[in-house]
Each structure stands twice: as C-alpha cells, then as structure tokens.
Amino acid sequence: MRINKEGYKIICISGAVCVFIFWLIYHLLVSDSNISLLWVSAVLLLLFWFFIVAFFREPRRVRIHDADLVFSPCDGRVVVTEVVKETEYLKEEMLQISIFMSVTNVHMNWVPVGGTVEYFKYHPGRFLVAWHPKSSTENERTTTVVRMASGRKVLFRQIAGLIARRIISYMKVGEPVEQNSVCGFIKFGSRVDVLIPKDSELLVEIGDPVVGSQTPIARLHKI
Q1: Cα four-point dihedral sign 198, 203, 205, 206
Q2: What is the pTM of this model?
C-alpha cells in the first residue's frame, strides 16, 4: 500500500503520540494484577495508528481520458444533483453534483476534466458538516475552474467538513491539467462539488457510490 505524501507528518506524529501513551500506561498504570490493561492498550493504540495510516493510502488507478465525460473527483457517495446559480466566477446556472467523503474513503482528489486552470481561489470559512447545504458557500474551501479545449468550463470545489481541517490543492492558474490527474487532498472527512453545463447528461443519482477518477458522473453535451 502506497502512502500519500500529505500523510507523512501526521503518521509520524501520531505514531510518536501512541508510543508515548503506551509508555505512560506501562509506567504509571500497569501492575502485576492488571497486566491485561497493557495488552488492551497496545492493541487499541495500534489499531488507531493503522487507521491513520490507512486514511492516507494512495491507490493505484488507471488514468482514463474521455473529453465527453466528467469523472468523479473523489471516492464517496453522491449527495446532491441539482441545477444552481453559480455566483463566484461563472455567473450562470450550472448542474451541481456533490460527493460526500466519509473518514473511511480515500481522500485524494482528481481533476474531473482535462484543460487549463482558468481560475483558482482559496476561501477561509466555517466547518459545518459537509452534507449541510450551506457548506458549499460558508465552509473553508477551494474553487477551481478548468477551461477545456472545446471552450467549455467546469468548476469544482474542495470543501472542508466538521472533522476535515485542512485542504491541499495543487492547482495553479494558467497550468494545463490532465483529466483524472491528482489535484489535491482533503484531510479527514469532507465533500467535493462539481459544477458543469446544465445541459449535460447526468449519469449518477443521489445515494450512488462513486470512485474517484474511475466513475463517470456526467456526459457533456456535444458542441
């Protein structure tokens, strides 16, 4: 199992904390009469550390290219499919598809379409639960707009949740990006919104599970 570089520091720190807690238990709480406490503590601390390691896993996936399709930017479950008025940059009605990532999902993010990064902005904000309707506009988030070779524009947002407290984005304005290349990481539970032209064909429904960079979520209308 590969580990994403964004997890190296947290994995090392959490491992050190687990070792320190085990040392405290061993020296302060354990006696000959309750040696079982030591073994139970060791198992629980090890399971906790393995959970942290697994959270930052980096799966090997085939990179798919299809200019007519929009792919899921993350692992998770579809929680929103609706037409909304996008007010930050595109200023038009768009079809929004939102995907919620639980703490058990892979938390890497991928670019849903290929093209050139036309717009990027980081927004500080609140930490409402990621499925809350206002999380798209009030939570800490990033907004990225990719202009495709056809001229169509696709916007996607990385959104922090109640537990997620750090968003990583590798997007830079003016740089070309390949479809389904890695675009960032969100740490510990979150959501990604994808906004596409409203005449696109929706390929998923609310409640559907999706796999980042592998599941097509919409088909763009041919120009």
Answers
A1: negative
A2: 0.82
Helix axis angle, 8-24 to 35-55, nearest 10° = 170
Phi then psi for 58, rounded to 5 degrees?
A: -125, 100
- The answer to whether the beta carbons of residues 202 and 215 sit under 8 Å apart is no
Provide the token pair at 78: 């579809």
Is 169 an annotated catalytic residue?
Answer: no
What is the C-alpha separation between 159 and 163, in angstroms, rounded?
11
The per-residue pLDDT for range 168-208, each reduced to its tens digit, is 899 999 999 999 999 998 876 688 999 999 999 999 999 99
Active-site option among 41, 190, 200, 213: 190
Beta strands across the sheet bearing 69-71: 69-71, 216-219, 201-202
Contacts of 145 (CB under 8 A, 6+ apart): 89, 90, 117, 118, 119, 120, 153, 154, 155
Q: Which of 41, 19, 15, 45 is nearest to 30 (CA)?
A: 41
User: Which strand (E) or helix (H) includes residue 192?
Assistant: strand 190-197
Task: Dump pLDDT digits (tens) for 83-118.
Answer: 999 999 999 999 999 999 888 888 899 999 999 999
User: What is d(CA 174, CA 86) in angstroms, rounded to the nearest whole number?
Assistant: 22
